[in-house]
């Protein structure tokens, strides 16, 4: 396993991190989740990403139990806040009240005194950004949070947050967590250039496009049973890919590229996102330990320019690049 700085911070993270968005507390039983976490640790992954909303807070609980007994200073634990975790109007968003209550809940579920990175899961249009950043900064000063990040924020929102932090003397954002893959490149036009300028690193999710880039979803055929496409918590994200027969056909054309390099399709997909120097870590999920062991082999793989061009030529016409997609991810009103 190789390691990278998280943005321009001093924190080192494993360039492949383990995430439990759909799996823990939802798609797989706890014993299988524990086995996947142990496989991640055995393979050198030190960075673990979750969120309070995953599986209705159960994912944090499962991860906390799975990491129990592991030396706390040997791992980096990331979580997030924004989406509803209760029925009330203040059980959501990025207000001082919700952030403060949510971090206490996350620490309790994760069985830890602090998280290494606390992320704003979306941009909250209903809370002054100054209030959100001041609350995050207070948590840093209290020792409950070490670093602050965001997820799926636009370049303009990240730039505004950096400006306010500098003006008010708050800790700066060090990371952004966007969707990024060979098929979904919407961060490249605006988010990545801005983040390179201000020292924010990308912790990318869905580098395998919810499994589409493994090649297991075939044109004209139903998705395999028990796959991401059949899980209610993740199926909405994958539909945009599965609805396109031309895209699925082109993904099949990537198989010779992977074979020529001695890589699996999943390894090729993860290695591809890691070629971007602004990417600090790529999040992989798993329902079986062997998936973890397969994915980590992408660490340290270098794809030469000819391979990158070949991939671009194969996927020409099916890659999504419009940066406007990021702006639509954060609801105008709290959910």
TrEMBL record:
Cellular component, GO, one term: cytosol
GO MF term set: oxidoreductase activity
Gene3D superfamilies: NADP-dependent oxidoreductase domain
Protein family (similarity comment): Belongs to the shaker potassium channel beta subunit family.
SUPFAM superfamilies according to UniProt: NAD(P)-linked oxidoreductase (SSF51430)
Keywords for this protein: Ion channel, Ion transport, NADP, Oxidoreductase, Transport
Tagged with keyword NADP: yes
UniProt name for this protein: Voltage-dependent potassium channel beta subunit
Species the sequence originates in: Thermocatellispora tengchongensis
Pfam families: Aldo_ket_red
CDD domains according to UniProt: Aldo_ket_red_shaker-like
Example GO BP: monoatomic ion transmembrane transport
The NADP-dependent oxidoreductase domain, residue ranges: 15-315
InterPro entries: K_chnl_volt-dep_bsu_KCNAB-rel, NAD(P)_OxRdtase_dom_sf, NADP_OxRdtase_dom
Leader peptide range in chain numbering: none
Upper taxonomic lineage: Bacteria, Bacillati, Actinomycetota, Actinomycetes, Streptosporangiales
